[in-house]
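Page 37, continued from 36.
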């Protein structure tokens, strides 16, 4: 196969409900959609779901745009290839910039699956026809508002709830939700906001008594020793997210017992192919995995559904319905959940069509290799 054209669309969409983590609050998102076209006229779509600000990771929409247009596009357009994994090898020379790589790689995977007449899940080796979805809730102004948000998601059919926590917003919110729902599948995510101190140790000891499914990314990404020490002290499984960017990180996590659950984010791992390899490694080590999200538009969300169909994804993934985040998504039909379960599409590629007029209506800027001087 050969791709003859690559286009980027930076698209801005408002969120249905603003979302706050330990670092910032957001009411809308700008993500970059990637469109690739091969010599037969077939089209594939991917999504660069990088944050606008360097809080979750060092990448931003600005850096991803630069890397995708200046460094990744030349390694894709006009290149002969047989399988998307070949492009992962071509991208390896570029250090970091996993979100940018994941978006371009995702478009190539969609194109590849469409050309084969296969659902993306099947092309990846998925075995499930349905994926259990969970929801992630941000920091709310009050405890009552948080409990109300939890109630709303439970009424929508979601059985797993993840709460964002931060210093000063941790034990009491969890206690409030747990008191209201004693048997809820509940876990918390700190996004690396806590220092490794005695005061923090007391917070995590208190959370350990709340029967949580997992405690996600309590410490800074590179502090794997602190995570290993914490895991040795508490019964709640520690889940790593930001700490595991590549397979070397995962090997270190396993060797140190720094975590007993892995959040696989396609964007953080650099693409579907590398995410699948992380899944395989974790499965062999007996570590359960689930697919985390970055509030993706429908393109990235559909890719997450596909990867979540692999056998090692035994925990609910962040693949809830589009309507939880966006009043009007960029795919048709939108990703939907029925009582917290998402059906894996059976159509070729992503299994969704792109609402191109809506994309164009919300596009902030574009890039087109066809317009780049030779």
């Amino acid at each position: 196969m050969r791709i003859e054209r690559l286009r980027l669309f930076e698209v801005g969409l408002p969120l249905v409900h603003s979302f706050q983590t330990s670092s910032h609050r957001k009411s809308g998102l700008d993500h970059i959609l990637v469109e690739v076209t091969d010599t037969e006229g077939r089209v594939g779509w991917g999504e660069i779901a990088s944050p606008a600000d360097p809080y979750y990771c060092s990448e931003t929409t600005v850096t991803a745009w630069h890397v995708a247009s200046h460094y990744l596009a030349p390694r894709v357009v006009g290149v002969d290839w047989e399988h998307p994994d070949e492009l992962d090898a071509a991208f390896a020379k570029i250090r970091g910039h996993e979100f940018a790589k994941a978006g371009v790689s995702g478009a190539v995977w969609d194109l590849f699956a469409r050309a084969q007449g296969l659902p993306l899940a099947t092309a990846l080796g998925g075995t499930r026809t349905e994926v259990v979805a969970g929801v992630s809730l941000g920091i709310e102004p009050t405890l009552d508002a948080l409990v109300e948000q939890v109630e709303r998601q439970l009424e929508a059919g979601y059985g797993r709830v993840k709460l964002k926590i931060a210093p000063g917003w941790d034990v009491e919110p969890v206690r409030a939700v747990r008191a209201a729902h004693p048997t809820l599948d509940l876990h918390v995510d700190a996004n690396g906001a806590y220092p490794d101190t005695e005061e923090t140790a007391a917070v995590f000891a208190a959370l350990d008594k709340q029967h949580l499914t997992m405690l996600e990314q309590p410490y800074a990404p590179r502090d794997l020793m602190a995570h290993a020490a914490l895991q040795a002290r508490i019964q709640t499984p520690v889940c790593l997210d930001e700490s595991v960017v590549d397979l070397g990180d995962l090997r270190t996590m396993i060797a140190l017992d720094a975590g007993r659950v892995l959040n696989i984010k396609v964007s953080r791992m650099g693409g579907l192919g590398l995410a699948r390899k992380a899944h395989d490694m974790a499965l062999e080590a007996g570590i359960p995995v689930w697919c985390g999200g970055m509030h993706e538009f429908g393109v990235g969300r559909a890719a997450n559904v596909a990867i979540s169909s692999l056998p090692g994804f035994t925990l609910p993934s962040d693949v809830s319905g589009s309507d939880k985040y966006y009043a009007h998504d960029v795919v048709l039909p939108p990703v939907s959940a029925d009582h917290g379960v998402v059906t894996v599409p059976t159509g070729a590629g992503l299994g969704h069509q792109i609402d191109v007029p809506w994309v164009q209506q919300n596009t902030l800027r574009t890039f087109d290799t066809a317009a780049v001087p030779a």
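The longest strand covers residues 3-20. Flag for discussion at group meeting. The mean pLDDT is 94.
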